[in-house]
Amino acid sequence: HNLAPIRQLAEQHPELPQVACFDTAFHRSLPPLARRFGLPDALHQAGVQRYGFHGLSYEYLSQALQTVDPVAANGRCVLLHLGNGASLCATRAGSSVHTSMGFSALDGLIMGTRCGRLDPGVVLHLQRQGMSADEIEALLYRQSGLLGVSGIASDMRTLLASEAPAALEAVALYCQQIQLELGMAVAALGGLDAIVFSAGVGEHAAPIRAAVLEGAGWLDVQLDPAANARHGPRLTLAESPVRAWVIPTDEEGMIARHTRRLVL
């Protein structure tokens, strides 16, 4: 969607340098098997593969973690970008080795209005029921997720403040999916040193962090409730073998760093 202004600026001001920062670039380190879908190789070669997103956020978080927990930053981490869009990324020594989003930004975790991981058979069923591609796209991107499940809102703050059964179900589903995806990420890493929460929900929703970390007790994560209530930055007890952190992300700052390096 940025191509038209890029072309126009290039035509009108060819002397001005333009820098494009791709949200998928951080995931270029994904192992070959992590990129593959169970589809014919011709489709894989044509680009139908896992790309991952929120890469600028994960790049920033990986660098910021070096300041507060360098041992973990150089080890095995799961980074959680939990905003209106949501995903997680497993890193080893700061490089992406697994991520929940795939070919598109629909995959993985349930989000504000996006469905997250979905059996492709559901799409075929909806198509056979007479829905057009545009209608299905609108359903999956803008009418599903927390909004669709709750029927109330896509905003986690609204849902956490509600006692409506549908709101409680939406929040529970959100937390359960994070816990399941966390398990996949830890399996990809072969262990875990730290978890990082970021973006709107990750930075500000203490009940969500508590639910995720309490559900991760099997990983020997020992939550410090008082630290979680004050939003960290460290969320776990001093003796916890696996640390958890809140680190505010800065995607725009990451873009500025890349631009400065290339232009100046």
Briefly note the structural class of the backbone. Answer: alpha/beta
**Main sheet characteristics:** 5 strands, mixed
Instruction: Indicate the low-confidence ranges by residue numbers.
Output: none
Identify the CATH architecture. 2-Layer Sandwich
Q: What level of helicity do the residues show?
A: 40-55%
Strand order of the largest sheet: 3-2-1-4-5
- Could you tell me the CATH topology label: Nucleotidyltransferase, domain 5
How many individual domains?
Answer: 1
Give the N-to-C terminal Cα separation: 27 Å
Order of helices and strands: HHHHHEEEHHHHHEHHHEH
| CATH secondary-structure class | Alpha Beta
What value does the Rg take, in angstroms?
Answer: 19 Å
**Number of separate helices:** 14
CATH superfamily: ATPase, nucleotide binding domain
Report the sheet-strand fraction: 5-15%
Mean pLDDT: 97
Q: Work out the number of β strands.
A: 5
Gross morphology is globular
Question: How is this structure best described in words?
Answer:
By secondary structure, the protein is an alpha/beta fold. The protein has one domain: 2-Layer Sandwich (Nucleotidyltransferase, domain 5), CATH 3.30.420.40. Helices cover 48% and strands 11% of the residues. The protein has 14 helices and five strands. It has helices at residues 3-12, 32-35, 41-45, 55-68, 70-73, 120-128, 133-142, 145-150, 156-160, 165-189, 199-204, 206-215, 225-229, 251-263, and strands at 76-82, 86-92, 95-99, 194-198, 243-246. Strands 3-2-1-4-5 form a five-stranded mixed beta sheet, sandwiched between helices. A hairpin with a 3-residue loop joins strand 1 and strand 2. Helix 4 crosses helix 14 and helix 10 crosses helix 12 (206-215). The longest helix is centred in the C-terminal third of the chain and has 25 residues, at 165-189. The radius of gyration is 19 Å and the shape is globular. The model has no long low-confidence stretch (mean pLDDT 97).
